[in-house]
Amino acid sequence: MTHPFIRRIAVCASACVLGCAPMLAAPVAWAEDDLAQRVDSAESVSRDDTVVESGHVDIGPKIVDGQWNILARDDSGATPVWRDLNHLVMKVNDHGLLDAPTQTPYEFLGGKEGEKWWIIPQTENPGVVWLGWNTQDPQATQRMSRGATMSIGHIDGPGKAWLFLQDGTFGEPRVLVDATVTTPQDVWVDVNTHVHANWVFTQPGVYVAPIRICADMQDGSRACAQSALRFAVGDSTHPEDALKAPIPTDFTQTEDSSSTQSGSPSADSPESPSTGTDADSADSQSRMSTITSVAIAVAVLLLVLVIVGIVLRSRATRRDILRVQEERRSHIHNRED
What are the angstrom distances between the C-alpha of 294 and each of 24, 80, 261, 291? Predict the structure, then answer.
């Protein structure tokens, strides 16, 4: 039978390792098995003003005429169309009104009983725009090295907003973007990946956020493009107001000085002038943080194993002493007899 103290040690070891798991998880967006889709290189590009109120839309990089662009693949109609984000509004209508989550583990949202928020869920809700992102443009996947860094700046709007991912029904939510953070927040996306997450808005109105996607190419060049996400939240909010909203300028011009709002220098050329300083620094910091967290987790686990070893050795030594004492008493008793 396992001693209660040993069981407690084992539980502590598990808790330590599980407690370190959130630190070990970098802000990475993983593809889900049920999100398989085929993206064709011949899909058209549109610069027309468009409002999408329901159906499937993915943000992502697309190479057009040799240029790296950040566009939205609108799959809400019969034929997929890549749309310029500067001419696209995601209309989050009142079909997306849901009770604010207040239970564990959603305390970070600060919701209160009775509140209703507008939510674009991670799984599709018919009648509500279903917004995700992908790195599946065939030309982009052929040229990208490992993946891309999607950076979303401060979400400007009348209420609070979040973007968070949940792994399965009972998985802990992983916050990717928090509107209370004023600096850009990075999400790493592997090449040829399709992801959806939860978008939450607490008040109706216009929300605008700058967005940038950068990637290292296989030829050693780096490509970046910047644009903006536009949301018209609530039935009473006019999409035209979102189209007119100014684009926030959260990002430094280091990587985008040679770029337009929706394109960047050619992804064909190694001489692309984009330096990638900010995203490289963020990726480096993320890797360093992950390495440090792994080292801490390993150290904690080794310490727990040492403690368990000491306890087991101590118990074995005590058993040996008791056995010797019992043998001596038995020997003395036999001599007296």
Answer: 6, 42, 38, 5
Q: Which of 13, 41, 211 is nearest to 131 (CA)?
A: 211
The residue behind tokens 């038995």 is: 330
5 half-sphere exposure, CB direction, 13 A CA radius: 8
- Checking if the pLDDT of 197 tops 70, the result is yes
- In 3D, which of 196, 206, 135 has the Cα closest to residue 163? 196
Token code pair at residue 217:
């190419």
State the virtual CA torsion across 289, 290, 295, 299 in degrees, nearest 10.
100
Q: What is the mean pLDDT of residues 264-273?
A: 40
Q: Which residues contact 172 (CB under 8 A, 6 or more apart)?
A: 22, 105, 166
> How many residues in the chain?
337
Helix (H, G, I), strand (E, B) or coil at 117: strand
Q: State pLDDT tens for residues 122-156.
A: 999 999 999 999 999 999 999 999 999 999 999 99
Give the model confidence (pLDDT) of 301-337 as tens digits. Answer: 777 676 766 656 666 556 665 665 666 666 555 555 5
Q: Which pLDDT score, from 0 to 100, does residue 74 have? A: 97
Torsions phi, psi of 321, nearest 5?
-65, -45
Measured on CA atoms in the order 311, 316, 319, 324, is the torsion positive or negative? negative
Buried b (16+ CB within 10 A) or exposed e, 119-146: bbbbeeeeebbbbbbbbbbbbbbebbee
Q: Distance between CA atoms of 165 and 176, rounded to whole angstroms? A: 7
Q: What is the CA radius of gyration of the chain?
A: 27
Look up tokens 């903006």; give the residue.
228
Condensed to tens digits (0 to 9), the pLDDT of residues 79-132 reads: 999 999 999 999 999 999 999 999 999 999 999 999 999 999 999 999 999 999
Contact 251, 210 (CB under 8 A): yes
- Separation of alpha carbons 320 and 312, rounded Å: 12
